[in-house]
Amino acid sequence: MVESITIRAYIGSNNITKQLEVGKLVTILNRNHDGFTLQYPVTGAWKGEIEDTAILYLTDERQKVLDTLNELKEVLDQEAIAYQIDNELQII
Question: For 86, phi and psi rounded to 5 degrees?
């Protein structure tokens, strides 16, 4: 049985351009997953610097979710992406 997880991830602005690259983020998510929810812009801070941030809510197979987070980290030039594993998402 394939294990699914539901996560909430905090994705900040590109470390080089200082821009929140929502277009790139959505492109990767659409390619890798059937659905997601994205909340932006919200204000975040990393190492004392305030930045535009997106909050991603995603449910899928554990490995697919982790692979996507790693891809986003690289493509969006992030030092880190913080995420929390939430309770299982129910769909009716």
Answer: -90, 175
* 73 neighbors 12 (Cβ within 8 angstroms): no
Q: What whole-number distance in Å separates Cα of residue 72 and Cα of residue 80?
A: 10
Condensed to tens digits (0 to 9), the pLDDT of residues 11-49 reads 999 988 999 999 999 999 999 999 999 999 999 998 899
Cα–Cα distance for residue pair 78/12, rounded to 1 Å: 7
**How wide is the angle at C-alpha 75 spanned by C-alphas 58 and 62, nearest 5°?**
30
Contacts (Cβ under 8 Å, ≥6 apart) of 31: none
Q: DSSP string spanning 33-81? A: -S--EEEEEEEEEETTEEEEEEEEEEEEEHHHHHHHHHHHHHHTT-S--
Tell me the whole-structure pTM to 2 decimals: 0.91
Q: Which residues contact 36 (CB under 8 A, 6 or more apart)?
A: 29, 56, 57, 58
